Structure formats: C-alpha cells, structure tokens
Automatic annotation (TrEMBL):
Annotated CDD domains: CYP164-like
Keywords tagged on the record: Heme, Iron, Metal-binding, Monooxygenase, Oxidoreductase, Plasmid
Record bears the keyword NADP: no
Source organism: Streptomyces akebiae
Coiled-coil intervals: none
PROSITE patterns per UniProt: CYTOCHROME_P450 (PS00086)
Family: Belongs to the cytochrome P450 family.
The protein's name: Cytochrome P450
Domain of life: Bacteria
InterPro entries noted in UniProt: Cyt_P450, Cyt_P450_B, Cyt_P450_CS, Cyt_P450_sf
Length: 398
C-alpha cells in the first residue's frame, strides 16, 4: 500500500525526513486524497521548478484567494503584485526592476556592514549560555534587510511584525485567525511605507532599495502598489529565510560534530558548507506550482490545472542524487541545492543570504573554541513552508 501525504499527520511533524523517505520509496509522484500532487525526488522537483508549464500565479486561483480573505481583501491585493507569484512577461518585468540591487557587486558593498553587525551582536553575547536565534540569527538579518531597504532602525520591529503576519499567506493552510491578522497587518504596513516613500520623493536617490525602486529603469517604473507589495515580500523573505538557514545549519553542525570540526579546521570550505547546510535542512521547505498543461513527471501525468508541491527538504535527502544524504559533507558540490529554488524563480536574495550565513558561521567558529547545545527539545515556528527554530540555546566558550 502506498504511503499517504497528510499535512496534519503527527508523524510528519515528528520525523519529516523519515516521512518523506517512506513516501519517496513508495510513491514519489504522489496524488493526495485532496487532489494536489506531492513530489519528493530531486529530479522531479527540479523539473517542476524549471518547467515552462508550471505557474506561480496563485492569486488568480479563486479557491486560493478565498481561503485568504477573497480576491479584493488587502492581503490578496498585495500578493497579486508579488514577484514570487508572477509568471511570464509580468515576472520578467518585475524581476528586472527589482534585481537592480541584488547583483553580487551591490551585495558586496554590504559586506563590511554585515561584518560589523555580526561582530557587534557577538560582542553583546559574550561567553556562557545564549539563545542563538534571539541574540544573533534573528537581529542580524533584520538589521541587514532594514538597511538594504532603507527602513529606519526604530521602525524595523514593527515592520517585522507586520510582514511576519502577512508571510503566512504562503502556507498551504491558512487558519481563520491568521487570515484576520494578515489582512489587518497589510494595510498598516502599506500606510507606513507610503509615508516613508513620500518622505523620499524629491530627494537625491539614496543607496537603498526603496529609493532605487522609486526610480525608472529604461523608461519603465514600478507603480506605488508594486513597490509596497514587493518591499513587504523582501522584508519578510529577507530575514525569515536567513534566520532559518543559520539556526537549522548550526543545529545540524552540532548534531554532526565531525563536520563542525572540519569547518573549523578548514574555513575555505565555507561556500560549499553553506550550500550543504541549506540542502540538509532548508529554510524554505516547499515550492508549489499550478500545472498550465499536462506535466510528465517521474513516469506519471499530472493533469493541467493540478496543484503540485515540490518538497525541497525531501529533494535534498534524495539518495539517488546525494550519496549518504543524512550525512553532512561540507565539500559536496553536486547537484546544486534546490534550497534557493531553480529556474525563473531562483531566489534573487541567494547571494545575500549565503553571505550573511557564511559571516555568522565564520565569526562564531573564530571566536568560540567550544560551542555546545544546552538542550535537545527545541521549539520550531508555526510556518509550514518556512521551517525553523524559535530558540537555539547554546553554551559558548572562548
């Protein structure tokens, strides 16, 4: 009998990698009782992400919109303009206009500031027992994305609260309480950002993303609504994924101390180490698409109109592509991690996220000769698609 995939199965929450292994071995291209499809093999997930017949335009789906408050509710008016949820020419246009400040050269300008932020937070942490999430993994990317966007320091906590609430819009299930919260938060963030934009008009363009996005490029310009919507998306994605990459990655290193010591002994491993950690326990666990034509994947036909979930964390443990997938191999280079997606929607912020994580891991290992996990029972966040720790208590010794 084939395994069944159920988002609410306690076995999934208890051991998701074991759950995915059983599904991958018995029914890797799996049609659930609810009608959507689930992919657990690397090649199948990669094919979905790269297919010209897989759509991200969920806001145009009436059922998807209704579970989030209806097509005219505040949060739907916002996500309808998110780069992440566009296809084709609309996606290419938005990506071109937003990508102006996500080039490696632009991000490299942030390197000294990221180092300064990390060192300042480490100085404040000192020795002894700390919570890596609260004291470093969360405040660092919030500060970085705040500076990238030009959000004043005193407003970043409010922006994080607003965007965190709206971020639940991408989860497969949205509860009534979260639907209410996200539709309250989006207008509050919108009013705040429109006021901030008004204060920037007429001034010389600054070197932050908000100011750049307000400028035209090759005769084209983002609308006010497009700027607000995508700043909301970038603020949320720009810190939430990095928090998870650092927290999940540090825990993985502590659970496999031989990998931690290998990285300590050879810092040149850091670039491949960050990608390996993202494969092992990715900050984003799934990518969902709508089939715009029949898709031939893994020997099965997924019909036009079907919703398909590519499980990034399952794909990262596929033994057909990653020998000994449950072991951290920090020198591993192939195949490329899918943690930052692939195809047209490859993550614009991948260079920044990798730089932030590498800076944190490098400076932690340089500063502390001993890093120990204080306890094993670690709370995780309530997001399904942004899987990460709420706390990571460590004991640090120079």
């Amino acid at each position: 009998m084939s395994a069944l995939y159920d988002l609410n199965d306690p076995a999934l929450a208890a051991d998701r990698f074991g759950y995915y292994r059983r599904l991958r071995e018995t029914d890797p291209v799996h049609r659930t009782p609810l009608g959507y499809w689930v992919l657990t093999r690397y090649d199948d997930v990669s094919a979905l992400l790269r297919s010209p017949h897989s759509s991200s335009a969920f806001p145009k789906e009436p059922g998807w919109a209704m579970t989030r408050g209806g097509p005219t509710c505040p949060v739907m008016r916002s996500v309808d303009k998110w780069l992440l949820l566009q296809d084709g020419a609309d996606h290419r246009r938005l990506r071109k206009l937003i990508a102006r400040v996500f080039t490696p050269r632009f991000i490299d300008r942030l390197r000294p500031r990221i180092t300064e932020i990390v060192d300042g937070l480490l100085d404040a942490m000192g020795d002894g027992e700390v919570d890596l999430i609260r004291d470093l993994a969360l405040p660092m990317p919030v500060a970085v994305v705040g500076e990238l966007l030009g959000i004043p320091v005193e407003d970043r906590a409010r922006c994080r609260d607003w965007t965190d609430k709206v971020g639940y819009v991408l989860d497969p299930d949205v509860s009534p309480s979260r639907r209410i919260a996200m539709n309250k938060a989006e207008p509050e963030f919108r009013r705040y950002l429109l006021d901030l934009m008004a204060s920037r008009r007429g001034a010389d363009p600054e070197h932050d993303l908000l100011s750049v996005l307000m400028q035209a490029e090759d005769g084209d310009q983002l609308t006010e609504d497009e700027i607000v919507a995508n700043i909301l998306l970038i603020f949320n994605a720009g810190h939430e994924t990095t928090v998870n990459l650092i927290g999940n990655g540090m825990l993985a290193l502590l659970k496999q101390p031989e990998a931690l010591e290998a990285l300590r002994a050879d810092p040149s491993l850091m670039p491949t180490a960050v990608d390996e950690l993202s494969r092992f326990d990715p900050p984003v666990t799934l990518a969902t698409r709508i089939a715009t034509a029949d898709l031939e994947i893994g020997g099965k036909t997924i019909p036009k109109g079907a919703h398909v979930m590519g499980l990034l964390d399952a794909a990262g443990r596929d033994p057909e592509r990653y020998p000994d997938p449950d072991r951290l191999d920090l020198a591993r280079t192939e195949p490329k991690t899918l943690a930052f997606s692939a195809g047209p929607h490859f993550c614009l912020g991948a260079v920044l996220g990798r730089l932030e994580a590498a800076t944190v891991f490098s400076h932690l290992l340089e500063r502390y000769g001993k890093i120990e996990l204080v306890r094993e029972d670690l709370p995780v966040n309530k997001h399904f698609n942004l899987h990460g720790l709420l706390e990571l208590p460590l004991r640090l010794t120079h």
